[in-house]
């Protein structure tokens, strides 16, 4: 039963990721990281552009913290998804990643800081995938409640790295905060402290 449930969850997440990739890729010929915002977004500055809906004229880009589906960033990467994290979290993730890699475990960041519009885009995609706002809320928080938008959360990959973080992350103050998201970590305790029990999902944790 556990294996079947895990397979269902993984399959559902794959569908969500694919939906995000398709929608983001449709916005620009080169995928979600390319394209040019419209002139209005540029005139109002990057903060305004990051709140605009995702369209062909205003696609998701690196400036939104966008990481293409199926890809990951080195923890040391100097891109908005990492540079706009809370400094203490960014430092802890980089320190933990270095320790893991010293033990032969590759660590990538599959998502870090996100713009408000990126978070809304993900929530819309999740609602399409799961068929209801209630079910989508278990996996994707609103832009107003997301710890990714505030720069207080990272998603790590891949499986070996998530497993390593689950066993040793607390040494760096990093804790898995949602039971259904093995990859989602936040700075929740002092280094070496005991992590609290994770919330069941994003809906319970909000």
List segments where confidence is low: pLDDT < 50 over at least 5 consecutive residues.
1-46
**Order of helical and strand elements:** HHHEHHEHHEHEEH
How are the strands of the biggest sheet laid out side by side? 1-2-3-5-4
Quickly count the helices: 9
Q: Secondary-structure blueprint of this entry?
A:
Blueprint: H1 2-26, H2 39-43, H3 46-49, E1 73-74, H4 80-83, H5 87-102, E2 108-111, H6 116-130, H7 133-136, E3 154-157, H8 159-168, E4 174-176, E5 184-187, H9 202-205
Antiparallel strand pairs: 1-2, 2-3, 3-5, 4-5
Helix pairs in contact: 1-6
Structural overview:
- It is globular, with a radius of gyration of 17 Å.
- Helix 1 (2-26) crosses helix 6 (116-130).
- It has 9 helices and 5 strands.
- The protein has 2 domains: 1-71 and 115-142, no CATH class; 72-113 and 151-206, no CATH class.
- The chain has a 5-stranded antiparallel β-sheet.
- The protein has helices at residues 2-26, 39-43, 46-49, 80-83, 87-102, 116-130, 133-136, 159-168, 202-205; strands spanning 73-74, 108-111, 154-157, 174-176, 184-187.
- With 206 residues, the protein is an alpha+beta fold.
């Amino acid at each position: 039963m556990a294996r079947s449930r895990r397979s269902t969850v993984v399959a559902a997440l794959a569908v969500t990721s694919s939906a995000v990739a398709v929608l983001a890729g449709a916005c620009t010929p080169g995928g979600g990281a390319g394209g040019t915002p419209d002139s209005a977004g540029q005139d109002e500055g990057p903060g305004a552009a990051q709140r605009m809906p995702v369209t062909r004229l205003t696609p998701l880009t690196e400036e939104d913290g966008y990481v293409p589906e199926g890809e990951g960033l080195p923890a040391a990467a100097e891109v908005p998804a990492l540079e706009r994290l809370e400094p203490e979290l960014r430092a802890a993730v980089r320190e933990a990643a270095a320790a893991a890699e010293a033990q032969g475990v590759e660590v990538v960041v599959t998502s870090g800081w996100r713009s408000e519009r990126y978070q809304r885009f993900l929530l819309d995609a999740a609602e399409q995938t799961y068929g209801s706002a209630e079910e989508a809320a278990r996996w994707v928080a609103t832009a107003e409640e997301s710890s990714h938008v505030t720069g207080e959360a990272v998603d790590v990959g891949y499986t070996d790295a998530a497993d390593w973080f689950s066993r040793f992350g607390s040494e760096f103050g990093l804790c898995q905060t949602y039971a259904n998201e093995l990859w989602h970590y936040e700075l929740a305790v002092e280094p070496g402290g005991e992590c609290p029990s994770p919330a069941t999902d994003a809906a319970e944790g909000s």
